[in-house]
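Thread: Newbie trying to understand structure tokens

Hi all, I'm a second-year student working on a class project, and my supervisor (Dr. K.) asked me to get a predicted structure for one chain before our next meeting. I've only ever worked with sequences, so writing a 3D structure as a token string is new to me. If someone could post the tokens and maybe explain what I'm looking at, I'd be very grateful. Here's the chain:
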Amino acid sequence: MLTICIILIVLLALDLLFTLALRCRKGHPKWELLKKYRYAHRGFHDKPVIPENSLPAFRRAIEHGFGAELDVHLLKDGTLAVFHDSDLRRCANVDGQIEDLTLEELKQLRLEGTDEQIPTFDEVLAIGPVPMMKFVCRTTQPFGVHTMVSLNPIMVDGTGMCGGCRVTVGGETKFACVDGPEFDGHLVDFAELTSRNGTYRDREAEVKENHVCRIESMGKALIK
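---
Reply by user tm_fold:
Sure, no problem. This is what the structure looks like when written as tokens:
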């Protein structure tokens, strides 16, 4: 009986300390910045197509205006891996503990039956306008930080038929909607991509100036 009472007292003390720690953190000024956003738990995953804690899940969260919460584990070679469970069975379908792996061994695994690898914490995922992704890659390259870019902005029909999403990656021609849209940003030929994106700039400006949207005209006519 005495042992049970001691255990209960210790648990209550730990609970009190944890509560006090949270109360202290609540006063930090950066809490207000965090409160401005909603966060997707382990990324905005959509199983079985988009697994949790994967780069596509984080990309989908960003595309929908969310932040992303993630989990990390320390591998035996000192690498931080983005993964929830210590046990590998549920998300990687193999036996063992993630902390017993090296980075090389980790990269052999796939998430939840998909082709997605388990990401590492030092990977950067850049999504946005082409110039922004270009300069993110310029910033990370000198430090050797692996950087993935998502080339959704250059996709047109999403089937690979129009060729509008053609891009050179590592000296090879790729199509964002078929081979991507994620690519190693340090291998993307951004100079060529920027040049191609500007091919029809004058024509686009002309059309923007003179084009009359029929749907908009119909709407205005109905309002009258």
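A couple of things are worth pointing out once you decode it. The first strand starts at residue 39 and ends at 41. The longest helix spans residues 2-26. Feel free to ask follow-ups in this thread.
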